[in-house]
Amino acid sequence: MTGLPLLIPDTAIYCEVCVQRSNADAVWTGHEYVRGRPEQDLQLHAAALFCGWTDARLVTTAVRSTTPRHGFYEQIPSTPIEAAGFCLWKLRLCMEAGNMAARRPAPGETLVHFFDINSEAPGKSRSWSPNTLPIRAVLNYKMAPYTQTYVAMPDIEPLLKSLHVPPLAGGRVPYTLPAILHKPSIQNEGATLNDSFALAVHLETIFPPEAGYKSIFPNGQCSYALAVAVLKVFRSIFPPVLPFCYPAVPKYLDERSREYFYASRKQMLGMTMDEFEAKGEALEEAWKATEAEIAVLVKMLKGRPSPRKNRGPFFEGEHPGYADMVLLGFMGWFQKNSQADLDRLLKLGDGELQKVWDAGHQWLEAEGENVEYEIPK
């Protein structure tokens, strides 16, 4: 079942993105909400408006028994009366847009607000960091409603300090993204969390399988342990990767972030980026070391020998988990740096990495609504 395309102005109070995806259990990628209403009522009220019924309470009662994002399109307008109501609804959207925009909730007040690192890439390909991409993949895979702000690199520290986020312990970069702001579920002073793994666990809690969201820990504690192991493997992968991936980062950063990146990495590495970059024989040695470390992940993806066919492309078979989101984020970073590097990476491991990429790369796209957020200078 495919979604009905909607021709609605960007300023409309209702937003819906719906497409058919390649994986059979996901028939749409977006979410529905009406600006200015509490999150739960957003979905229910949107269903009432979409069906063109004037008695919203009746529809609310009918929809409350199901999960709106799964059952929403079971009642699309099909009769002339419903079609007329649908046209009236679109007219109402245009008339009310201005009033609703004035009452729009602040970032993080109702929906999860996601802070990502800025780049100059266009459209939905703007995300690039191997740290932030896994969390974006989690939000998109769960089809969770969220808004987003892209933050220039020199603004990350003042942003997180203003939100009372403490520096990360043990990291060479104490203030980093991703981070989410969500007042209904985060109880610290700034209602903000960072650190990718902690964010993944939190998102699993507030968008749980019991409420109809897909799980990123499909096998419970085993999935959690697997994610910890994969993160440990990546700590060995990054050292040989950085000499040929780091130098590619500035090409897609905005000007302020580019200057910051060059200066901060020179201080961190003790050399310029040109001096750090692997070239010629050093580049091939870096790739050999990378391939040796990647081989561990490939072995984990293959699993033990089994007569069962079509076990699925992910670490745990047919259902992806957070471990897969980490791997996808890493591959997404390679794609941003160089399509040739991604192609070389995907050829490793008898096609195992290619299978993961083909099955999940769409979750790396920016699906949230862009919202301006004032950052202290």
Automatic annotation (TrEMBL):
<protein>
    <recommendedName>
        <fullName>Glutathione S-transferase UstS-like C-terminal domain-containing protein</fullName>
    </recommendedName>
</protein>
<feature type="domain" description="Glutathione S-transferase UstS-like C-terminal">
    <location>
        <begin position="225"/>
        <end position="363"/>
    </location>
</feature>
<dbReference type="Pfam" id="PF22041">
    <property type="entry name" value="GST_C_7"/>
</dbReference>
<dbReference type="InterPro" id="IPR054416">
    <property type="entry name" value="GST_UstS-like_C"/>
</dbReference>
<dbReference type="InterPro" id="IPR036282">
    <property type="entry name" value="Glutathione-S-Trfase_C_sf"/>
</dbReference>
